[in-house]
Specification:
There is one protein chain. By secondary structure, this protein is of the alpha/beta class.
Amino acid sequence: MTTDIKLGGQFELSGISMSVYRMGYGAMQLAGPGVWGPPRDADAAIDVLRAAIAAGVNHIDTSDYYGPHVTNQIIKRALHPYPDDLVIVTKLGARRGEDKSWNHALSSTELLDGVHDNLRNLGVEQLDVVNLRVGGISEPTEGSIEEPLIALAELKFRGLIRRIGLSNVTPRQFQEAQRITEIVCVQNFYNVAHRNDDAFIDDLAQQGIAYVPFFPLGGFTPLQSSALDRAAAAMQATLAWLLQRAPNILLIPGTSSISHLRENLAAADLGLPLDLIAELNAIGESVRAEAQLTR
């Protein structure tokens, strides 16, 4: 698949001297239901990855605990040897239990094992970017992240990791991390309705650090409003809103469908009228107001 989509312009990842298009691809949906086991159609998953690269995407987000191991193995099968400009960002800090649970894996031994799993299943000698995943299921929790981050920084010193990012963290944890090692990106829960990170995003933008929202389309009740339904019908306007929200926001919408991939990428070229932007902003304001009333 070829395209003249601009993919939202480019953003230079701090400390890497590589630019990525702001519209990337998230690999979570390449695994089976519940992000467990293989997909129903592995060949279709491979086709989607190759279509993304053909469209110009050069930023893939993954993790070896998706599956586990499944998405990285599919990425390797589809794209290895990788294009020179492709940046693969993976995550450490969790593992899957036999009961399909999601569990923390933040000890130095678990982080080392996770790095080697990623290296093996992706078929590389060094990981481009590794995000340290901490906190709860979707929300960060305050507390020091010094111990696991020092362990990850040691693996960077050994040459197994090129750069380090953070996932599911608070501004205070980000500041703590910066005292330990360079941080090139933050991946947190953020979308039209969930905007707790507004000030955080602006601070990162001033520092030239990428912010990658997960759950960008929500998937919970407050986002199922008529306003958002109308916006979503306008060529993934919610993704376009995120790109217009701040210049350091990178998107990684995932899909197992080539047609849906095209729709997602087209959002990069969608200019939103001011009235629609105001309507989408109002969703976040109403959710915050409702939250305050229930406290």
